Amino acid sequence: MPVNATKETLKELTATGTVVVDFWAPWCGPCKVLDPILSALEKELSGLKVVRYNVEADASVPQTLGIMTVPTIVVYQQGQPKEKVSGVYAKEKLKRYFEKKLEAAR
């Protein structure tokens, strides 16, 4: 189950391993579509951690990352943001993408 992050907890939550941060907003329809996909993939893929960040609660972190739209996912590896992808994608496409990121991190 994805963990909710705040500005204060994001650094700690992304410090190790491969972490996908889902930048979302409560009013965002596509975000509601993406949420169960990310939850399922977190269960299916060993080593993948999903964190959710509500941009409406605090927009300072998304601004520093250049996030202009939601949903946007940022892949962190060992505490560093490595890649950013905006929009909703099919579960299988995201699964293949995350598998490549996990494999590259090994």
TrEMBL record:
InterPro entries per UniProt: Thioredoxin (IPR005746), Thioredoxin-like_sf (IPR036249), Thioredoxin_CS (IPR017937), Thioredoxin_domain (IPR013766)
Keywords from UniProt, A to Z, are: Disulfide bond, Electron transport, Redox-active center, Transport
Q: Name one GO molecular function term.
A: protein-disulfide reductase activity
List S-S links within the chain. 28-31
Reply yes or no: does the keyword Electron transport apply: yes
Q: Which GO terms describe its cellular component?
A: cytosol
Q: Name the active site residues.
A: 28, 31
> Is Disulfide bond included in the keywords of this UniProt record?
yes
**Contributes to redox potential value, annotated site positions:** 29-30
* Gene3D superfamilies assigned to the protein according to its UniProt record, in alphabetical order: Glutaredoxin (3.40.30.10)
**Record domain Thioredoxin: where:** 1-103
Please cite one Gene Ontology biological process associated with this protein: cell redox homeostasis
Q: Return the annotated site residues (Deprotonates C-terminal active site Cys).
A: 22
Signal sequence span is none
What PANTHER family does this protein map onto?
Answer: GEO12009P1
What family does the Swiss-Prot or TrEMBL record give for this protein?
A: Belongs to the thioredoxin family.
What name is this protein filed under?
Answer: Thioredoxin
According to its UniProt entry, this protein's organism is Lacticaseibacillus zeae
